[in-house]
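As described in the Methods, two query proteins were run sequentially through the folding procedure within a single session, without resetting any intermediate state between them. The first query and its resulting structure tokens are shown here.
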Amino acid sequence: MLNPTSDRLDYGRLLSPPYGYELVAAIGTTYSLDFSALIGVCIALELAEEPDSQLLKNPICLLQALRRAGDKVAVFCQAGQIQAPSDASSLYILLETIVYQVLLEKRKNHPVFHSFHPKFWLARYGNAQGDERWRLVILSRNLTFDRSWDVAVALDGEPGKDITPKNQPIIDFLGYLRSKLPKSASGKRKGALLGSLMSALPRVVFSAQSIDKFQDFEFIPVGVPNSNGGIYTMNETKLFSHSFQNLLIMSPFLSKELIKEFNTKPMQSNALKRVLVTRKEALSEFQANDCDKFAIYTMKNDIVNGEASLSEEPMETRQQDIHAKLYLWHEHSNSELYLGSMNASNSGRNGNVECMICLKSRSRWLNLEMLTTALFGADPDGPQNPFELTPLPPAQKQDANKTAALEKMIKALCHATPQASVREEDGTYTITLSFKDLESGEGLTVSPLLTKQTLAVSEQCQFSGLALLQLSEFYRVTAANEEVRISRTIKIPTLGIPKERDMAVFTSIVKNTGCFYQYISFLLSDDYLSTAVENENLKHPGKNSHGNSLPPGLYEEILQTAARTPDKLKEIGNVLTMIKSKDVIPSGFAELYDSLKRAVKIND
């Protein structure tokens, strides 16, 4: 279940549609976001291919995946936590209708801004017969390429006949996300998408019994308003409100007060155990009486510095550590396993928005010994155990995080009500960017993501001489001091972007007849990886005997599509509408499309 060497989950497989099904809708949440990782997820959701496959290097494939995902996928992240890409692509423009930032306001009696921190996916799939499948995924992993060790659980669901009250917390969470959408056209479309999921969920049955050892589950969207007028919280769970016989906490970040609370809770037998698994640096400010009843484990240094010792496959050595958040509560014959995004910290428990799931079991199927054996191996002192028993280091004040102040500056900028507008001047464009509630721009610079023009942040910034494909709602913000600098991408509402910009993204990739052939082939395919290989022969149509005419294989594929799935022909019509250049569309293709359209009686 939780063996680090054998029970690894593939992010792409968690989200790929079941065989014979296609994606209907998917909603994801993450604290931090990497655009390349998101594009990989779109490939998994829409094309049912691995996120790290060769398709990531194929711009035609990426274009198809992102165009398909644009109307079906929404991903919510913490404002100011989108990683700034090293090499920005115009394809990122297509992510504007997928990515939505969440900004939490200060809560009463809390001096700081809390974070939108959940890691969650809900996907709905359908097939040609009208059948549905659903998948609920709760993770501790952000949508990035971080190699730290995380944990995830996936529950499959199907429509049932009766209303399932168990799904109300999921519905409430989706309602909360819907309230965070902008009032833009894309925001309204995604609001309707969320509404359709919320309407269907009452009769969807998710089962924890498909996961070995578990009988039931409870979804807990911490910090989200519930339908009864309260707020979802972990404080009412058995983990926090009941006594226990055995306890395991795995969390990379800790608050002394919370761990001390568990440390001082009376146990029903002194022979039973408390186990804490964390990072070494998380212990720096602890004193003995804060956690002296815990057996403390941290990851071995050779594992932190590289994963090669756990795998026979060669790999690049990258630093890693635990990032999983997991809690085992055991009392008498009952066991509950909590996992998700919440750290064992004050802000995680009270303040942040988090997603947790409680998996309920019996102690004969799940207990501390079983869980520690899965994590540490049969011999906790053996070389195969990636963790080691760690004595508490001498208490010391932790060094100030050099980037924490810079992160705070970027978060404050996100709260400064940024807005932008575009106007055309003699064939080029000017962006005027304003920060209505800016307190200070010192140490901050900003630039549109797709241009190198950079300005110091002020109440109003102006970027001139921009091309159509340099217009985007994504902006790069850099915060710097004398020691360090960090860059993030933020999304800013930008009015006046011409409608033809998205069309320009398409035509910048489908720019000749060979690319046109490739795109049509991808459009009609059900096996995208094989199509990518076959499409190598279509890149340079002038080098084969077909010249500007339709290759026989593609011609046959179009005829089969017209006979079997005529609705796919509509998308070909959309492509023809977007391409204005006569040099791209091969001679006679538009006429072929019109004749097939009449034959199968479809309207564009």
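Immediately afterward, the second query was submitted; its sequence and tokens are:
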Amino acid sequence: MRFEKNSIEAVKVIRIALASLLAILAADVLGLKYSATAGIIALLSIQDTKRETVWGAVRRCISYIAAVGVSWVVFHFFGFHAYSYGVFLLIFVAASYYIGWQDVLSTSAVVTTHFLTEAHYGLDVVGNELALLAVGTGMALLMNLLLGRGIQAVLRDIEEVEKRLKVILNDLSAYVQRVDDTDLDGEALGYLEQFLEESRKRAYQIQNNTMFADSEYYLDYMEMRKAQCQTLRQIHDHLHHLAYVPEHAALVAEFIRHVADTVQERNNADGLIMQLHELIRLHKGVPLPENQIQMEDFAILYDVLNELEYFLKLKKKFVEGLSQQQVKRYWEEG
């Protein structure tokens, strides 16, 4: 998990460095004055997701227009002096904090210094600053488009999640049949829970880096697996209370192994649910045990079967919630 997290941070560092460098070079090619400012704007504009970067660019443009208006009034009355710039900042920073846009005020504050340096508001100066803003925010958005999706990382996450789910289910199956001989360790389950939390973050980034697609698929998938993991935790806790190997344990263990073998992403769980209902029917038909301990184990096994049903229904609900477009994009074309 630390490697994946560091990889994401490394990609962001690369995005920032490349966006800033390319923004400066582009500004130089366009013949803009204060080209280094384009690099600073790109650095300030890079966000974790494309949506955040786009929204930040929109707010920076609005902030720039407001800064031009406010600074023109201030410099018109007080002249192009350092203390005039201080008056401008006093007004502009207060207004930015008031509306919650303090994260974009730095860009406008920087470009306004150029008006102070040039000491006039000609169209050439205003146009130059607007071009710097466009180049800086444009490069930031471009870097998010090229380097921000990370789909391959999430695809690897899905593969890893399913592999670990299979291991955990097989461990539960083995424990049902050999209560006294098999150690039911929850470490693998705990690791999977942590891994899913990190995977959800990566899936969220992909969702926000794809503005016009059904990209919530990955996040929905991770949410489904997280809920299934919580259900496995319940099964794990139930099995810990077993005193002996209950009757029909072999059938239950075999079914859990079958679930493990079919845990993959594209199984809709319909067939498994039908098999489970038959197993529950058989369990209910067994004569009740005569002593209390066996009765408790019988009830525990019934609870396990109910939890397994919920586990499978979570997958069924996920599959049924997919649109035809998602099925085509992520299953048929994937």
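The radius of gyration is 30 Å. We note this only descriptively and draw no conclusion about the first query from it.
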